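User: For my dataset I need records formatted as: sequence, then structure tokens, nothing else. Please produce one.
Assistant:
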Amino acid sequence: MFKNDLFAGQRVLITGGGTGLGLIMAERLAGLGAELHLCGRRLPVLEEAAGSLRQQHGVKVVTHAVDIRDAAAVDAMIETIWTQHGPLDCLVNNAAGNFISRTEDLSPNGFHAISDIVFRGTFYMTQAVGKRWIRDGHPGSVLSIVVTWVWTGSPFVVPSAMSKAGVDAMTKSLAVEWGRHGIRCNAIAPGVIPTEGAGARLRPQDSQQDQLSGQNPTGRIGQPQDIGNLAAFLLARDNSWINGQTIALDGGDWLANGAYFKQYLGWGDAEWQAARERIAARNAADRAARTVNAPTPSPTPDQSGDNE
């Protein structure tokens, strides 16, 4: 679909780039010659991903452990990239977190666990990169990963739906404000593209892939190449007139079926308790892995987990 050197000489930063959708997009862009910068929570995970990308594609891959909820830390990371490696050409806002919960059961901490990453963190990243592009007269492209819930809403994931809607509004707003500087802002709203981390927190029961495939107009769920190819297409310099767009990548699922997670409307207290226990167990396992693998000095936590 693309010439092999489409991104040769271009520098791309992907938040949450060590796992899930972030890594899928990193693999596609690496195959097209991009120099990659991967930002995430767990430095060992980022280094493992970077090593694989270097070996497979022979490209430069740099890792950055940072908490994107910390505006000062984000700005320091971007300044380091600019001074040590050169200006970025593309930013992919992929980092996110999510879990299912009845909204009445959410704690303030639970709400902030999602909104501080998706809403605030995405803005911090975009502003830190964008202001340098404007200062230097350097054109650039921002691609943010949102959800089809920005159009439909979705029960039981209200903090994510609210935050992603904010990112969608940011995309449209900055497309107008920054277009004169040669900066394009677009977004992808993917459907179900299975990743292990997201599945554990959003569908913490038996696999529902057969059901999800059956209800999709195309008869299938998403594959890695779907989002990898669309990300490359939207970021490519030749597409200089695609700006301010959020593109659904879901086989028409949101048009056919509307909001996600309606199946949980029938759950009672017992089902929600079981779901909370499964999600808590997964979170505990992730925390344990971060403790065991933490480098010295320990990086601040970030949010490189799978996107929805």
